[in-house]
User: What shape does this take?
Amino acid sequence: MIKGWTGKRLRIDLSLKKAWSEDIPPADLRQWFGGRGLNASFFSQHFTSPVSADSPENPIAFAVGPLTGTLAPCSGWTSIASFSPLSDSPVYGFTRMPGHFGASLKAAGFDQCIIQGKAERPVTLWIDDGEVKFEKADHLWGKETTETTVTLQEEKGDRSIEVLCIGPAGEGQVPLANVIHRLSWTGDRLGLGYLFGVKQLKAIAIRGKKPVTLQYPKKFLDLCLSLKNQIHEGQKRRKLKAEGDSSLLGREERSSAHRRLPPGSEKQWATSLWANLSGSEGCSSCPVHCGRSVQDRGNSLAGIHLDKPWYLGPQIGVYSGEWTLKLHRFCQAQGLDPFLTASLLGRILEGVETGTFSEEDLRQMDEIEDHGEKVLTLLRRITSGGKKEFHLPAPPTSDNEDLDILADIVSFCMIVVNRLNLMTISNIIDLINGATGYALTNKDLQVTISNIRQMESRLQNKTLHWNDQTSLLRQEKGQISQILKKEERDHVSISNPTAS
Amino acid sequence: MSAISIIPERCTGCQSCEMACSLSHEGACGSSLSRIRAKKWEEISVFIPTVCQHCEKPPCMEICPTGARKRIPETHAVVTDEKRCVGCKSCIYACPYGAPVIHPSTKRTMTCDLCKGSPLCTQVCTAGALSYIPEGDSSMERKRAFGQTLFHAMRTR
Assistant: This one.
């Protein structure tokens, strides 16, 4: 077994109620060194053409990297892939989810989990340290996410269990539905809630007790400690922490939002938002803690990830922090994807799309004076409308796709790596070396990124081939190369402690 | 003499302390190998790290039938002598915090040893929930805040 990995893949068939474990060949782990590549390679091996999102064979794949579940800062992300229901014809889609789910999956003894089949009755998967049980979930069906999470934990008598579940939106097969765990961290932009709903999978409850072993524990510890400081002391993180600057996150779409903000409104929004937030929440081993707890009349509620408020705020013309939080709470309880929801709401409000609404409906809506209330009313209608056709735009592409992929393949936080630039490529190479013992070169990284991109393009039937000239050009002059050159010049590799 | 000070309102549930503790003591990362554990109530965003408090009058030392629980004079830490421990778990039941945990492979209890005087968990806690400070400085305000959080957590559960 390669250190840092468990070397196991959990296969689940909901139709047959069977679960079994497979060995992942060490060569695959060495080749992909992360969740995104493992998922893409699984799909490439098993599917020559896409299957319908509704079909039982359509897998939902969760996978983690060698650094997941360790002290490595910001290693709490999980890569997820499936044939997505969001487009007219099924297409290979992938996303990533922050939080603690990946770390729990690994502690339960698995690097990857593939869920196929369709249950006849609502079911919960209970993965207890490597053992899998299919449990009836009729009593949970219809329940909001908070009640589902707490009920499952109380039934098992252990609040340390991680519960990944859907809400009523997912059950009703609303394409905008997502999955949520710890009531804050969500898997978005893939229609995951819909896919769980189709499979009648209400929740996955995980408890893991297996530690992650490391190749060079001493070196790894030293690296993690210095990296933690590097991130914690980073200027952008400080700015993020500073009060009222929540809008640093989730603003990529700002330039494309054609709406001009009324003067002072953004500040007013941020102030009213922050008045209702306190305390922080963090992903597994994260020094940034970009989740906040929501306060409601002196009561503490489940948290909000700072990625989200912007979308449920100024992005859709809501300039009241209270309304943003109300909208978020609705999404949280129902299991709705805030990003897709916001983009659909935006289009309806701009009159570009009518969604499920008749003109009469929209005229009635115009009579509601408070904009926040109007949006929430729209949202309630969308959720109760069930499975309807929406035209969902593609997620915004990042400025630096290579860095996104790099963060994603090792199941790292893109916010820290790409948006805040608080971790360098050499840092990641050093960490992987400490955990697994691989001595990766920059060339290896470039080849892997290019391979993953090609696999994904083939799965998505895009015209990018092995001999594609543009991709070779990218590899030659790509952003990764430029960044690496810059890093070499700046000598930013922070430490080279001797291997223990 | 210094002690680990816990301010649970600041804990974010990131579990870095657990990872650092297990990595430095056992050379592997995992909550089950950690001497400190962050308890969670996610529906109300409450996270509370629990760790041995190294009591002045430790119930674990009084109850231990084999005398395995002992105090290290240099750090004032109360730890388990693995050679004497028989894994009877009395210390876990006697501890008001339930802080001692069972080592998954040796099946003996283990508790915080204050890392020989520089606890690593306090160094990795960027949220400021854990710090290692002189005992007298752990102020009344902090104790009251902790009590309130516990009270709140119990009442709303």
